[in-house]
């Protein structure tokens, strides 16, 4: 099976910006893992999906802007700027990146890193 490429990761980012949990989870393996920027770890489709949906609840207008993607072999990376409005009304603009490990043509592990400001 072919590993995902930069276009696949761009499509994944588009699904995030559309807040489309079905499209996102279709691009991830059943045994997927999400490691957050704060160090929490979520495993499996249900846990990962619930965490992603919680992001949209906490920051309903979240978008990932200025995204750039690359992939090589079974690894990939997306760089972006996380923007949105917090529950307190504060405007967020946080640079970060996702590091991916691919398996069976999908995202197996997504590790997020945020620049501390």
Question: Any overview of this molecule?
Answer:
With 117 residues, the chain is α+β, with helices and mostly antiparallel strands. The protein has a single domain (6-114), classed as Roll (Nuclear Transport Factor 2, Chain: A), CATH 3.10.450. The chain is 28% helix and 46% strand. It contains three helices and six strands, in the order ααββαββββ. It has a six-stranded mixed β-sheet with strand order 2-1-6-5-4-3. Strand 4 (75-85) and strand 5 (91-103) form a beta hairpin. The termini are far apart.
Q: What order do the helices and strands come in, and which of them pair?
A:
Elements lengths: L5 H12 L3 H6 L1 E8 L5 E3 H15 L4 E10 L2 E11 L5 E13 L2 E9 L3
Parallel strand pairs: 1-6
Antiparallel strand pairs: 1-2, 3-4, 4-5, 5-6
